[in-house]
Amino acid sequence: MTGRFISFEGIDGAGKSTQIAAIATWFRERGDEVVLTREPGGSALAEELRALVLNRPMDSLTELLLMFAGRRDHLQTRIVPALAGGKTVLCDRFTDSSFAYQGGGRGLPLAMLDALADWVQDGTEPELTFWFDLPPDLAAARRAGAREADRIEAQQLDFFDRVRAGFAARAEQAPQRVVRIDASVTPDDVWTQIEAVLQRRYPA
Protein backbone atom coordinates (compact mmCIF):
# COMPACT_ATOMS: atom_id res chain seq x y z
CA MET A 1 0.00 0.00 0.00
CA THR A 2 1.26 3.47 -0.88
CA GLY A 3 0.49 6.48 1.28
CA ARG A 4 0.15 10.14 0.49
CA PHE A 5 3.03 12.62 0.48
CA ILE A 6 2.10 16.31 0.83
CA SER A 7 4.57 19.15 1.32
CA PHE A 8 4.20 22.74 2.48
CA GLU A 9 6.36 25.58 1.20
CA GLY A 10 6.78 29.29 1.71
CA ILE A 11 8.83 31.95 3.46
CA ASP A 12 8.96 31.69 7.25
CA GLY A 13 6.13 33.77 8.66
CA ALA A 14 3.58 32.57 6.10
CA GLY A 15 1.62 30.57 8.70
CA LYS A 16 2.39 27.05 7.56
CA SER A 17 2.56 25.49 11.02
CA THR A 18 -0.99 26.40 12.02
CA GLN A 19 -2.46 25.07 8.79
CA ILE A 20 -0.40 21.86 8.78
CA ALA A 21 -1.89 20.98 12.16
CA ALA A 22 -5.39 21.59 10.80
CA ILE A 23 -4.68 19.46 7.72
CA ALA A 24 -3.39 16.64 9.93
CA THR A 25 -6.69 16.73 11.82
CA TRP A 26 -8.61 16.71 8.53
CA PHE A 27 -6.89 13.52 7.38
CA ARG A 28 -7.10 11.83 10.78
CA GLU A 29 -10.83 12.42 10.88
CA ARG A 30 -11.00 10.49 7.63
CA GLY A 31 -9.18 7.55 9.20
CA ASP A 32 -5.64 8.21 7.91
CA GLU A 33 -2.53 7.60 9.98
CA VAL A 34 -0.60 10.85 9.69
CA VAL A 35 3.14 11.46 9.99
CA LEU A 36 4.15 15.07 10.63
CA THR A 37 7.72 15.95 9.74
CA ARG A 38 9.89 18.81 8.54
CA GLU A 39 12.97 19.91 6.62
CA PRO A 40 15.68 20.64 7.25
CA GLY A 41 15.43 17.85 9.79
CA GLY A 42 12.89 15.09 10.20
CA SER A 43 15.30 12.33 11.24
CA ALA A 44 17.89 12.13 14.01
CA LEU A 45 20.81 12.77 11.67
CA ALA A 46 18.97 15.40 9.65
CA GLU A 47 18.09 17.32 12.82
CA GLU A 48 21.79 17.51 13.69
CA LEU A 49 22.51 18.82 10.20
CA ARG A 50 19.64 21.32 10.58
CA ALA A 51 21.34 22.83 13.62
CA LEU A 52 24.53 23.29 11.61
CA VAL A 53 22.80 24.76 8.56
CA LEU A 54 20.75 27.28 10.53
CA ASN A 55 23.42 28.40 12.95
CA ARG A 56 26.96 27.84 11.65
CA PRO A 57 28.62 30.06 9.03
CA MET A 58 29.22 28.27 5.73
CA ASP A 59 29.27 28.93 2.02
CA SER A 60 26.26 28.38 -0.20
CA LEU A 61 27.43 25.08 -1.71
CA THR A 62 28.14 23.59 1.72
CA GLU A 63 24.67 24.68 2.80
CA LEU A 64 23.11 23.01 -0.23
CA LEU A 65 25.00 19.75 0.22
CA LEU A 66 24.08 19.54 3.90
CA MET A 67 20.44 20.13 3.00
CA PHE A 68 20.45 17.25 0.55
CA ALA A 69 22.43 14.98 2.88
CA GLY A 70 19.78 15.50 5.52
CA ARG A 71 17.04 14.94 2.94
CA ARG A 72 18.53 11.62 1.91
CA ASP A 73 18.56 10.35 5.50
CA HIS A 74 15.07 11.76 6.11
CA LEU A 75 13.74 9.93 3.07
CA GLN A 76 15.41 6.65 3.85
CA THR A 77 14.61 6.48 7.56
CA ARG A 78 11.24 8.21 7.78
CA ILE A 79 9.39 9.27 4.63
CA VAL A 80 9.79 6.21 2.41
CA PRO A 81 8.96 3.69 5.18
CA ALA A 82 5.88 5.73 6.14
CA LEU A 83 4.65 5.86 2.55
CA ALA A 84 5.28 2.13 2.14
CA GLY A 85 3.08 1.59 5.20
CA GLY A 86 0.21 3.52 3.65
CA LYS A 87 0.55 6.57 5.90
CA THR A 88 -0.11 10.20 5.01
CA VAL A 89 3.12 12.18 5.28
CA LEU A 90 2.82 15.94 5.83
CA CYS A 91 6.23 17.59 5.44
CA ASP A 92 6.94 21.21 6.34
CA ARG A 93 9.33 22.02 3.46
CA PHE A 94 10.93 19.68 0.96
CA THR A 95 12.99 20.06 -2.22
CA ASP A 96 11.10 23.11 -3.50
CA SER A 97 12.66 25.04 -0.62
CA SER A 98 16.14 24.09 -1.83
CA PHE A 99 15.32 25.41 -5.28
CA ALA A 100 13.86 28.60 -3.79
CA TYR A 101 16.45 29.30 -1.08
CA GLN A 102 19.71 27.86 -2.41
CA GLY A 103 18.76 28.24 -6.08
CA GLY A 104 16.77 31.48 -6.08
CA GLY A 105 18.11 33.12 -2.93
CA ARG A 106 21.75 32.01 -3.09
CA GLY A 107 21.96 31.86 -6.88
CA LEU A 108 23.33 28.32 -7.16
CA PRO A 109 22.90 26.65 -10.59
CA LEU A 110 19.51 24.99 -10.97
CA ALA A 111 21.12 22.17 -12.98
CA MET A 112 23.10 21.28 -9.86
CA LEU A 113 19.93 21.13 -7.80
CA ASP A 114 18.20 19.03 -10.45
CA ALA A 115 21.06 16.52 -10.35
CA LEU A 116 21.08 16.35 -6.55
CA ALA A 117 17.31 15.90 -6.46
CA ASP A 118 17.53 13.02 -8.94
CA TRP A 119 20.28 11.26 -6.97
CA VAL A 120 18.90 11.85 -3.49
CA GLN A 121 15.17 11.39 -4.01
CA ASP A 122 15.25 8.46 -6.41
CA GLY A 123 11.81 9.38 -7.72
CA THR A 124 10.16 10.14 -4.38
CA GLU A 125 8.36 13.48 -4.43
CA PRO A 126 5.17 14.99 -3.04
CA GLU A 127 1.94 14.38 -4.91
CA LEU A 128 0.64 17.75 -3.68
CA THR A 129 2.43 20.88 -2.50
CA PHE A 130 0.81 23.87 -0.84
CA TRP A 131 2.81 27.04 -1.50
CA PHE A 132 1.97 29.67 1.11
CA ASP A 133 2.72 32.82 -0.85
CA LEU A 134 3.37 35.99 1.11
CA PRO A 135 5.23 39.24 0.34
CA PRO A 136 8.61 39.16 2.10
CA ASP A 137 8.01 42.39 4.00
CA LEU A 138 4.79 41.04 5.49
CA ALA A 139 6.52 37.77 6.38
CA ALA A 140 9.31 39.73 8.12
CA ALA A 141 6.77 41.73 10.11
CA ARG A 142 5.08 38.53 11.26
CA ARG A 143 8.41 36.98 12.28
CA ALA A 144 9.57 40.06 14.19
CA GLY A 145 9.57 39.37 17.89
CA ALA A 146 8.38 35.79 17.47
CA ARG A 147 11.86 34.37 17.98
CA GLU A 148 15.48 35.19 17.30
CA ALA A 149 16.21 34.91 13.59
CA ASP A 150 18.42 32.05 12.46
CA ARG A 151 21.19 32.46 9.88
CA ILE A 152 18.83 32.19 6.92
CA GLU A 153 15.94 34.21 8.38
CA ALA A 154 18.40 37.06 9.05
CA GLN A 155 18.95 37.68 5.32
CA GLN A 156 17.87 40.98 3.76
CA LEU A 157 14.52 41.44 2.02
CA ASP A 158 16.04 41.24 -1.46
CA PHE A 159 17.14 37.68 -0.64
CA PHE A 160 13.54 36.76 0.16
CA ASP A 161 12.32 38.47 -2.99
CA ARG A 162 14.52 36.01 -4.91
CA VAL A 163 13.26 33.14 -2.75
CA ARG A 164 9.67 34.07 -3.53
CA ALA A 165 10.49 34.19 -7.22
CA GLY A 166 12.07 30.73 -6.86
CA PHE A 167 8.87 29.33 -5.39
CA ALA A 168 6.85 30.97 -8.17
CA ALA A 169 9.07 29.34 -10.79
CA ARG A 170 8.59 25.92 -9.19
CA ALA A 171 4.82 26.43 -9.15
CA GLU A 172 4.86 27.37 -12.83
CA GLN A 173 6.88 24.26 -13.69
CA ALA A 174 4.56 21.89 -11.80
CA PRO A 175 1.03 23.34 -11.87
CA GLN A 176 -0.62 19.98 -11.21
CA ARG A 177 1.38 19.51 -8.01
CA VAL A 178 1.94 22.99 -6.59
CA VAL A 179 -1.09 24.94 -5.40
CA ARG A 180 -0.59 28.59 -4.51
CA ILE A 181 -2.29 29.71 -1.31
CA ASP A 182 -2.71 33.43 -0.62
CA ALA A 183 -1.16 33.56 2.85
CA SER A 184 -1.64 37.32 3.28
CA VAL A 185 -5.24 36.87 4.47
CA THR A 186 -6.58 35.69 7.84
CA PRO A 187 -5.89 32.12 9.02
CA ASP A 188 -9.57 31.27 8.52
CA ASP A 189 -9.44 32.49 4.93
CA VAL A 190 -6.23 30.53 4.36
CA TRP A 191 -7.95 27.40 5.65
CA THR A 192 -10.90 27.99 3.32
CA GLN A 193 -8.52 27.91 0.36
CA ILE A 194 -6.80 24.76 1.63
CA GLU A 195 -9.98 22.88 2.47
CA ALA A 196 -11.34 23.48 -1.03
CA VAL A 197 -8.22 21.87 -2.49
CA LEU A 198 -8.36 18.92 -0.10
CA GLN A 199 -12.00 18.22 -0.85
CA ARG A 200 -11.33 18.35 -4.57
CA ARG A 201 -8.19 16.19 -4.46
CA TYR A 202 -9.37 13.71 -1.84
CA PRO A 203 -13.16 13.34 -2.09
CA ALA A 204 -14.82 11.12 0.49
Automatic annotation (TrEMBL):
Domain annotation Thymidylate kinase-like: ranges: 8-194
InterPro entries registered for this protein in UniProt: P-loop_NTPase (IPR027417), Thymidylate_kin-like_dom (IPR039430), Thymidylate_kin_CS (IPR018095), Thymidylate_kinase (IPR018094)
Key words of the record: ATP-binding, Kinase, Nucleotide biosynthesis, Nucleotide-binding, Transferase
Catalytically driven reaction(s): dTMP + ATP = dTDP + ADP
CDD domains found in the cross-reference section: TMPK
Statement: the UniProt record of this protein carries the keyword DNA damage: no
The enzyme's E.C. designation: 2.7.4.9
GO molecular function, one term: dTMP kinase activity
Cited SUPFAM superfamilies: P-loop containing nucleoside triphosphate hydrolases (SSF52540)
UniProt-annotated binding residues for ATP: 10-17
Gene3D superfamilies, A to Z: P-loop containing nucleotide triphosphate hydrolases
Known function: Phosphorylation of dTMP to form dTDP in both de novo and salvage pathways of dTTP synthesis.
Recorded family membership: Belongs to the thymidylate kinase family.
Protein name: Thymidylate kinase
Species name: Pelomonas dachongensis
